[in-house]
Amino acid sequence: MPLKPKIPSPQPQSRRVGYAIVGLGKLSAEEIIPAARTSEHAYVAALVTGEEEKGEGFARAFDLTEDDVYSYEDFEKLQGREDVEAVYIVLPNSMHREYTERAAKMGKHVLCEKPLATNAEDAKAMVVACKKAGVLLMTAYRCQYTPEHWAARDAVQSGKLGAVKLLDSIHAQVEDDPTAWRLKAEYAGGGPLPDVGIYSLNIVRFVLAQEPEWVFAALHQPKKDARFKEVEESVSFMLGFPDGVIANCQTSYGAQKTTTLRVMGEEGSVLMDPAFPYQGLKLTIKTKEGSLTPSFPAYDQFGLELDHFAECIRSGKQPWTMGEEGVQDHVIMDAIYESARTGQVVKLSGSRKKDPFRGEQKPKLPTA
Amino acid sequence: MPLKPKIPSPQPQSRRVGYAIVGLGKLSAEEIIPAARTSEHAYVAALVTGEEEKGEGFARAFDLTEDDVYSYEDFEKLQGREDVEAVYIVLPNSMHREYTERAAKMGKHVLCEKPLATNAEDAKAMVVACKKAGVLLMTAYRCQYTPEHWAARDAVQSGKLGAVKLLDSIHAQVEDDPTAWRLKAEYAGGGPLPDVGIYSLNIVRFVLAQEPEWVFAALHQPKKDARFKEVEESVSFMLGFPDGVIANCQTSYGAQKTTTLRVMGEEGSVLMDPAFPYQGLKLTIKTKEGSLTPSFPAYDQFGLELDHFAECIRSGKQPWTMGEEGVQDHVIMDAIYESARTGQVVKLSGSRKKDPFRGEQKPKLPTA
Amino acid sequence: MPLKPKIPSPQPQSRRVGYAIVGLGKLSAEEIIPAARTSEHAYVAALVTGEEEKGEGFARAFDLTEDDVYSYEDFEKLQGREDVEAVYIVLPNSMHREYTERAAKMGKHVLCEKPLATNAEDAKAMVVACKKAGVLLMTAYRCQYTPEHWAARDAVQSGKLGAVKLLDSIHAQVEDDPTAWRLKAEYAGGGPLPDVGIYSLNIVRFVLAQEPEWVFAALHQPKKDARFKEVEESVSFMLGFPDGVIANCQTSYGAQKTTTLRVMGEEGSVLMDPAFPYQGLKLTIKTKEGSLTPSFPAYDQFGLELDHFAECIRSGKQPWTMGEEGVQDHVIMDAIYESARTGQVVKLSGSRKKDPFRGEQKPKLPTA
Amino acid sequence: MPLKPKIPSPQPQSRRVGYAIVGLGKLSAEEIIPAARTSEHAYVAALVTGEEEKGEGFARAFDLTEDDVYSYEDFEKLQGREDVEAVYIVLPNSMHREYTERAAKMGKHVLCEKPLATNAEDAKAMVVACKKAGVLLMTAYRCQYTPEHWAARDAVQSGKLGAVKLLDSIHAQVEDDPTAWRLKAEYAGGGPLPDVGIYSLNIVRFVLAQEPEWVFAALHQPKKDARFKEVEESVSFMLGFPDGVIANCQTSYGAQKTTTLRVMGEEGSVLMDPAFPYQGLKLTIKTKEGSLTPSFPAYDQFGLELDHFAECIRSGKQPWTMGEEGVQDHVIMDAIYESARTGQVVKLSGSRKKDPFRGEQKPKLPTA
């Protein structure tokens, strides 16, 4: 699906939600800012970066002026920018809390990259801060906004697969830069688990619409490897859901890119492989009739997120992946690390309620 | 790959090894006996069954006489049959030990269907009995004889994938006959684990050529379901191998047919899907160069097994999947059930030796 | 899908149709005779062969006696065999006419391997002979009996693909034995065209349910190659159907096994790849909703043919692929060779009628 | 492969080749201009359009000023723009000749979209004009610049497939806007053939490195359909190459998107499906060892073209797909239309020389 930026929409920006993009790394540059150009309800109104020159280059390239570029120190100057209604935080995990709290104080709505923080405590504090300030907080779980992941969830929820028995998900990739912040415990809060393993955790919960009751995990951290002095290389974890449903998950920074999701039921199964890239998701739904790979219109995952949150800002409704959804993954990840440390099963609160941590505004799926 | 029986070979049977097939269920009828017709070194010389009429029908169909059909009571009459050098035991698991011991006493070599027994203790007794009697014992692990599984193992062992980090394997299928002996603890020794989950366990050990050091498992047994009064419906288990390598496995009698094996390494990966059917195995080896699905000549898995054991009988060498290999899976399955019962990790002896439980005669792979 | 012969059915043979298999080559030995064991309505009652010893081996293997084996000279002795109601002719193409006429004279129904003869004239004579004798004649087009090919046809005929515009089909394989009768013009009537290209021709007509109005063809015959002294190596042909629909087809004895069918419509498409093997057909139906690979129960193509013709014998109805269907392919193949020889388009009679050359008894598709 | 524009390169533009993009339709907006941002050796220096406002929007969006936007009338003002060394003509086919000649007169090098013109005569005139003016002319055949198409060609040229016997290629899509210029004979020079069928024609010639000796074609033009009053809906054509190699091709504006290439040889085959999209090409090379899908680094097809021509401008060498390559496709397409009109085979000059119409500068393939 070719999805390159369209030319700027001629519609008045005044009706769209202006975002300040906070942090100008690869994700912002290659995915988020280009995606904003495909958005119906959102646009990039400002950039916040520690590298002024880079910011100005971006500004010129994306139809902004130098006045739209802010340093981290000047972050609070955004308060005067009425056209900036939301910030999109794309910073190292450990900075999410601080910038969320600073944004909330200015009355800006916060879209925050996953993981929401580096642990459940910080994540909860972010939710509290946004509630107090009366702003919305959304965790940027792009895979809860694609038609493929929704079709997988619908196959499960509709009963088309019969009772679900087992799930299996893998998200692995090679991280080979020993200096990457993603390998520093202080900045990242963990290794592959909060970075890529979180996709498996999050999507397993999403397709089941339920919460795990217990977790068991084991990890491998080869400390002699310069990359893994502070964080794990791999984690394998098992999640126990209500009714004896079990999900096996694996994540690693030491194995070639693999992203899968498999849901096995009495009467059918779902396979996504690849399950988590920005583009090219492949979904197969197997039932007694055969194997179906549904077709969907082209879309941009980041564009869908930006639009969803913009619509929430207009409607005042809680986003589908609200802050609490991000907190819950931290609660479980904290338990995963605890289990790996103790070698024991860790109990979780579970829940019989459907989607207990998700908001009221359901995502709009792309239409042709 | 069409693989129907060839016409009977004109070579003198005297040079081939005559087998008595013990038990005439679906597997014997549809796979093993037809496979014998494709064999170079083996042929079916006698049938042992509790249903005389059925046995005679088979005998007529497969070029034997009524005199080649024996009841279980007459099993010992095979002793006088010099042309019967081996028995192939295709009975319910709980009968494996008895018939192995009776065959050994007669000096017949024993090829025994997997699982070797219903627990490690019985399996060990079978090894002892055969040793004592000076006959060979082979566990019929057909997946250790296919070119696809060997290519997967070779990809791992050659280093082509870099260091292996994680493995994942699933073997599930729906068992819907509540009266099946496979659902009776006494006959089967367990539910899907010793029947189909054993493939995942066995093949993960085979491709790594190593032994697990610990296991954690959880199972689900919905006793209200008439099928699962005695045995589990599903088991999820995690195997810890040397060097932090972890395998996640799942098996079930409650989910649609799924058979997979995935090996993830630093520089490549292996995917088999399907991984365990009698025909149509699909292997993909991914490295930086791309994805390769190797081609192999047509073959019959049961024919390969029959030939391998026949060659061992001629050479006197221990078969590749000798009795000890079958015992080891029982040791691990016993630990899996213990872990599921206690909720605790169970330690295993592990081993730094390569292929510690396999024989000296390597399988011959089929050639075009 | 493993499909090995089942054990002989305990039902009385008296209700089933007894076939004499005429010709004991690879196809008879590996496919047809084993398939008869899976049949509901048919069984093998006699064998006709030029190699007595081979025949007796077969007889023993397949539960017949030496008295059930006939030489070609003794063919007419089948007349006295009331249990032999039909013959299945599996001889070199050039012998089809003679044996059909001899069988018809004996009042035996005739199932004849494709191609029906070596040219349209002989094929027509066979139809006439069977009509005159009051016996049924069926061309053994196995691909008109599979659920996959019917699902492809249904996708076309139901309008699910919108108006069909183009078709494309390939059937190629390497024939490397220069002494094979398939490479002798006298025996085969041509090269790859009547042997494998006929599948493309036949299936394109089948899925459209229409007849071509013109044909253009080009062939390649490298006479320096010992294999192609008498027959072509490759043929490319274009078939013009009503309403401007065009099918491109290719066949070869010089290229690696390739068997495909593609039907392209305004709103969807059908792809079969592989399209023509005995097992493992893969069908994909693409519409705006996505790509569907339907599932079907296991079956044996030759078993389905044997059953269909047996049912026609019982019902007295014309088989779906009656003699006329085989004649029509010869009419078109004769035109293909003429076009290749002259370099000109050759007009055909065409037809606006649906399925003008097919019988009244539709095949029963396998059920689970 | 996500491939969104990178941020502008900080390298001095003075070393890169500045292009004027002539024509601002969908292809320029969504593919070419964004691709220029990924280019090492090229950048967009000016825009030429009939819609001033649209041009200024683009200019702002892509870091140009209003002064960089020219109307068609002002095209010659580019002469004074020394930084504009080349023009990229992305206009309706019938305007290619005029703008190429006008650009050549100004001494600007010309990269021209395919098809080069609307017939061979105009295409030849363009080659002459550029030669006379001493500027380079490149036909924008993006599929001769991808690693997948080169790997397909290499498989053929290396002999890895054995002698090639047959080829088959399809390029179809639905054109449903009856007002599109692509459906006007005057502007387009034909229907799907010069627009999408040309890919099949061009790539078949590319992988063989040879030229056809004859062509046969049939077309369908349902004039009652408002879309096909002037041009054909579908064309099927057969190309005869040296040594009896035949390619079957089909193209249509009336069938769902299909893009394939198949090359069948004695010892292997190549399949590309899809074969011609901007992204997501899938190549499979089958040999006796198995099926290989090679991996390649991410790239942008238009970026590769822009870079290749920029390098030719710097080196003075003829581009790989020089004007003559574009002329040759027109010669063949003229013959295809003649064959379809007359119902006769049309002879072509053919050539025993390898790549007789390609330039001396080979494309650089993307590296990781």
Automatic annotation (TrEMBL), chains A, B, C, D:
<dbReference type="Pfam" id="PF01408">
    <property type="entry name" value="GFO_IDH_MocA"/>
</dbReference>
<dbReference type="Pfam" id="PF22725">
    <property type="entry name" value="GFO_IDH_MocA_C3"/>
</dbReference>
<feature type="compositionally biased region" description="Basic and acidic residues">
    <location>
        <begin position="352"/>
        <end position="368"/>
    </location>
</feature>
<dbReference type="InterPro" id="IPR050984">
    <property type="entry name" value="Gfo/Idh/MocA_domain"/>
</dbReference>
<dbReference type="InterPro" id="IPR055170">
    <property type="entry name" value="GFO_IDH_MocA-like_dom"/>
</dbReference>
<feature type="domain" description="Gfo/Idh/MocA-like oxidoreductase N-terminal">
    <location>
        <begin position="18"/>
        <end position="140"/>
    </location>
</feature>
<protein>
    <submittedName>
        <fullName>Glucose--fructose oxidoreductase</fullName>
    </submittedName>
</protein>
<feature type="region of interest" description="Disordered">
    <location>
        <begin position="347"/>
        <end position="368"/>
    </location>
</feature>
<keyword id="KW-0560">Oxidoreductase</keyword>
<comment type="similarity">
    <text>Belongs to the Gfo/Idh/MocA family.</text>
</comment>
<dbReference type="InterPro" id="IPR036291">
    <property type="entry name" value="NAD(P)-bd_dom_sf"/>
</dbReference>
<feature type="domain" description="GFO/IDH/MocA-like oxidoreductase">
    <location>
        <begin position="151"/>
        <end position="270"/>
    </location>
</feature>
<dbReference type="InterPro" id="IPR008354">
    <property type="entry name" value="Glc-Fru_OxRdtase_bac"/>
</dbReference>
<dbReference type="InterPro" id="IPR000683">
    <property type="entry name" value="Gfo/Idh/MocA-like_OxRdtase_N"/>
</dbReference>
